[in-house]
Specification:
Order of helices and strands of chain A: HHHHHEEHHHHHHHHH
Largest sheet of chain A: 2 strands, antiparallel
Shape of chain C: globular
Strand order of the largest sheet of chain C: 1-2
Oligomer: heterotrimer
Strand content of chain A: under 5%
Distance between the termini of chain A: 19 Å
Radius of gyration of chain A: 20 Å
Helix content of chain C: over 70%
CATH topology of chain A: ABC transporter involved in vitamin B12 uptake, BtuC
Largest sheet of chain C: 2 strands, antiparallel
Strand order of the largest sheet of chain A: 1-2
CATH architecture of chain A: Orthogonal Bundle
CATH class of chain A: Mainly Alpha
Number of helices of chain C: 11
Distance between the termini of chain C: 48 Å
Order of helices and strands of chain C: EEHHHHEEHHHHHHH
Shape of chain A: globular
Radius of gyration of chain C: 19 Å
Chain lengths: ~325, ~250, ~290
Amino acid sequence: MTNSRIGYAIALAALIAAPFFVYPIFLMNVMCFALFASAFNLLIGYTGLLSFGHAALFGSAAYVTGHVVSKMGLPVEVGILLGTATGAAIGLVMGLLAIRRTGIYFTMITLALAQMVYFICLQAPFTGGEDGLQGVPRGKLLGVINLSSDLNMYYVVLAIAVGSFALIMRTVHSPFGRVMKAIKENEPRAVSLGYDVNKYKLMAFVLSAALSGLAGSTKTLVFGFATLTDVHWNLSGLVVLMTLVGGLGTLLGPIVGALIIIALENKLGDFGNWLAAATSIEWFKSMGESVTMLTGLIFIICVLAFRRGIVGEIAAFFKRS
Amino acid sequence: MNVATEQKPIADNDPKTAKKALEIRNLQAWYGESYILQDMNISVNQGEVVTLLGRNGSGRTTTLRAVMGLTGARKGSIRIGGVESIDLPTYKIARLGVGYCPEERAIFSSLSTEENLLLPPSISKTEKGMSVKEIYDMFPNLAERKASPGTRLSGGEQQMLAVARILRTGAKLLLLDEISEGLAPVIVQALARMIVTLKAKGYTIVMVEQNFRFAAPLADRFYVVEHGQIVETFAASELNSKMPVLSELLGV
Amino acid sequence: MEIFGIPWPLMLSQLLLGLVNGSFYAMMSLGLAVIFGLLNIINFAHGALFMMGAFFAWMGLNYFGINYWVALFVVPVVVGIFGILIERSMLRWLYKLDHLYGLLLTFGITLLLEGVFRSFYGVSGQPYQVPALLSGATDMGALMLPNYRAWVVVASLTVCFATWFVIERTKIGSYLRAGTENPKMVEAFGINVPVMVSLTYGFGVALAAFAGVLAAPIMQVSSLMGSNLIIVVFAVVVIGGMGSIMGSIVTGLGLGVIEGFTRVFYPELSATVVFILMAIVLLIRPAGLFGKEK
């Protein structure tokens, strides 16, 4: 236990120092998605429920926060709270409907419901449709901390991320977390032990949804906009991929996965150009624009050959030795 | 497209084993991590009726399933009609001439009785399975219920259907798992007569049976299975002298 | 004549449009159900393969001079073979695992296929000419019946019912039904089930590609045409359940018609009405209208 405490202390120190060495916007981007992926992982990794609709939770919170802060002029902290609450509320509705089926049907339902949210966002006047919400101000946190400074914003985001991660850790190791694990491993057995399985699944869903909403709200403030991309099923797929690459069901996996995927996204253009130059095949230049293709390829490779993800493989390696 | 073409057997040149219907040597089998069969050795000649006795969980059903390739990993040797089958997929094993009637009967509920009967394809050009007419002659109840969904039949009729199905393929080695289980005495007697008839026609039968009184008069030889191994084997003629041993092993 | 303030000809033409969409829903959910029954995999790639069918028809016409009628037969076969290759090389490794991995893999294949087509053709739609024989409309008195759309409905229904007939009434269909129930037992009778599985996947995929060829003249052929469709089809499948062939067909057609009428009366809801119905069905009858929950 002490080893991991030292590890976390070092990591925290590194994160505090990081914005002086690495571009803060990039770091904040990674943290938002690390939170999003960790929230998603709460569901699939610990309850065994695969949701393909998490973008609805992320994106609707992004829109709500964007709207109340820029159009209604509410304080930043209220915006974040409302966004998180939106995520939780939509998560409650989605969860109530989806949990009525299990397995693959659950997944399809989350996807369909998220698509409905997408269409609502597409048509609703307050979202700005295809253009999205632009120019969301960062304002002052609690009226005091000026978030327009990237450095200040960074530490606020860091606090949110660390706080949420701590919450997730506590949840996973709590009695509630253990029941979730039991449900994942053997649901009929959990039922026979007298647990109201559906209630637990719903609680897990709502918690995951709230944290996803928090991630979305934070992202809006960091970048200053919320668009349809945030509610599109592509994003749902992306967060699944991050968790898969990092390691389903591990605490650090989603964080590692988010880091890798976002770094990849940023560098893909350069990589495509390099490949084009190296092989003289022009088409590789357009590959740089195709995150989709690369995402698909990584998905396929992970599912076939790398299901435990990076953190999972490392953990298994240490278990063997 | 023909899904049931004949498999060319890799023939065995050893005269001692070439003629045996089924030869199992040092068979080990697993279901996932569970090590069920530890060292099975069974030998069945053409035309014999052999019964596997033993308590529940001893590995008798697993032995039959292992022959069909329906368990997890397998090691050892299983020769069917002289052909080594340990590495073959299930459908190729069936095409060597084996018919399997599982304990759960496995009647297809989405098919009618007649569709259940028509499903098994002819697996051999030389051995013809029973025609549907011959089946209906042997089992008139099935003729009456031919359009009913397979699982709407009574327990006894389902059992008859399960056995009748494997007679359709032309398989001459029949693996029967607890066919008398849970059936009325009248039906059990009918099944016993059927086994006698099949034996007279030259079928080789390996039976797993809890019902000792059903199996005893039918078998030529017996094996007693315990913990995935053979602990006793004897011929029908020795049955009486072996009764004390059997009482102890099986509580008969 | 008017119904609810809508002129009768408009109702009829919306009904036809609804049937057209419903035919696509029916064919796609039929393919999904057939594949799911035997392979226990939800083929997310169905949408992308639909798109591939449309694109191959377009490419066939523009690069090889292959006309619509030939494409109608050739393209499903080509895409079906492609599907068999996918099954043999990738899907078969997943059968022993949790169903979810099949969904994730086919999702990955979807992204890959869409990404490839997008990198060559972008996202804007390519036009595909309605074949000369079917262009124009027939005057039916009450309405002008667009020939091509009528053909789509007829062709789809024919294929759907042919599929139903083969599966429910023929011997080869009985292999599929039995295999869906208990594949190991079917194998124990000497039937080459692995080959049957591959062919079934190929067939399901061919159905999607056939729908794609039918769709080419109506929808803009673009790399994105499959993804929005597949999500609606998922909702259709949740509503109808995947236990029954006829159920899938009826649900698909019905939802297409309902969606069509919604477009007349409540256009704002037309994009989401299927999802709303899905939510209602989940509340009232979770197993689906025709579901035999697996």
